């Protein structure tokens, strides 16, 4: 294949401007840049996880502080049945995912409240 020269690149740029408009192109370039940055950081994390040994990941999970689970108060009559075993503490990644979901819900509710005020 032949390489693209200056005239070909100018034609491609002109077609992009005609298709998307001059105002949309910077927004699209920013979006592509952000996506590439996120993709690179995620692939770097995956490489780091692959390089780690299984014993190392077990140690980091054991060092994470466990969140206490609230115990429901049950009447005496129901308490005769054996209580279910407590669920294992979630991993650090799971805790981070739950916190991100909570933050997204809080942002959404704050945005909807702000829209109601306006």
From TrEMBL:
The keyword Transmembrane applies. Pfam families: TatA_B_E (PF02416). One of its GO terms (molecular function) is protein transmembrane transporter activity. Residues 105-118 have a biased composition (Low complexity). Part of the twin-arginine translocation (Tat) system that transports large folded proteins containing a characteristic twin-arginine motif in their signal peptide across membranes. TatA could form the protein-conducting channel of the Tat system. Residues 94-104 have a biased composition (Basic and acidic residues). Belongs to the TatA/E family. The lineage of its organism: Bacteria, Bacillati, Actinomycetota, Actinomycetes, Streptosporangiales. The Tat system comprises two distinct complexes: a TatABC complex, containing multiple copies of TatA, TatB and TatC subunits, and a separate TatA complex, containing only TatA subunits. Substrates initially bind to the TatABC complex, which probably triggers association of the separate TatA complex to form the active translocon. This is Sec-independent protein translocase protein TatA. It is a single-pass membrane protein. It is found in: Cell membrane. Residues 43-118 are annotated as: Disordered. Keywords: Cell membrane, Membrane, Protein transport, Translocation, Transmembrane, Transmembrane helix, Transport. GO terms for biological process: protein transport by the Tat complex. It comes from the Bacteria. It comes from Nonomuraea jiangxiensis. One of its GO terms (cellular component) is TAT protein transport complex.
């Amino acid at each position: 294949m032949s390489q693209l020269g200056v005239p070909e690149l100018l034609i491609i740029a002109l077609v992009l401007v005609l298709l998307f408009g001059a105002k949309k192109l910077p927004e699209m370039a920013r979006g592509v840049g952000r996506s590439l940055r996120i993709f690179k950081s995620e692939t770097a994390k995956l490489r780091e996880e692959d390089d780690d040994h299984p014993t190392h990941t077990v140690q980091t999970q054991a060092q994470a502080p466990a969140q206490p689970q609230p115990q429901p108060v049950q009447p005496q009559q129901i308490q005769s049945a054996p209580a279910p075993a407590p669920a294992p503490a979630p991993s650090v990644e799971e805790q981070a995912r739950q916190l991100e979901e909570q933050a997204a819900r809080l942002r959404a509710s704050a945005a909807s409240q702000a829209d109601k005020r306006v």
